[in-house]
Amino acid sequence: QVQLVESGGGLVQPGGSLRLSCAASGRMIFRKDMGWYRQAPGKQRELVATLTSGGSTNYADSVKGRFTISGDNSKNTVFLQMNSLKPEDTAVYYCNMRDSYTSLSYRGQGTQVTVTS
Length: 117
Known about the structure:
By secondary structure, the chain is an all-beta fold. It has strands spanning about 1-5, 10, 20-25, 30-40, 45-50, 55-60, 65-70, 75-80, 90-100, 105, 110-115. The strands form two sheets. Strands 2, 4, 5, 6, 9, 10 and 11 form a seven-stranded mixed sheet that branches. The chain has a four-stranded antiparallel sheet with strand order 1-3-8-7, with no helix packed on it.
C-alpha cells in the first residue's frame, strides 16, 4: 500500500512562488512516473507537469517556463516549483505516482494553492 501526502500549498500574491512537495509512504516504488495535476472550482482536473521514470518532463502550456517538476527516486518524493504565479493558477494540486512495474497509480489528497492580491 502506498499513501501520498502533498504539502507546501498556501496563499500567495500574484508573481510569488511556492514549492509543493509530495512524499510517498508505505512500500518503495523503485521505478515510477510522477506528475502533478490541479483542479480549480467548477473546472475539470488538468495535467500540470509530468516526470517519467526515464527523466523526461512535460508541462501544460499554461505553466511552461514558470513551473518545474523534479523528483527524488531514492526518497519517493516529487516536487513542483511554481514561480510567477497567477490568479488562474489557483486550484487544488494533486500529485500522482504510477508504478512502472505494476501500472498501479496513486494520488494524494491535494493541497490548496490560492493566488490573490
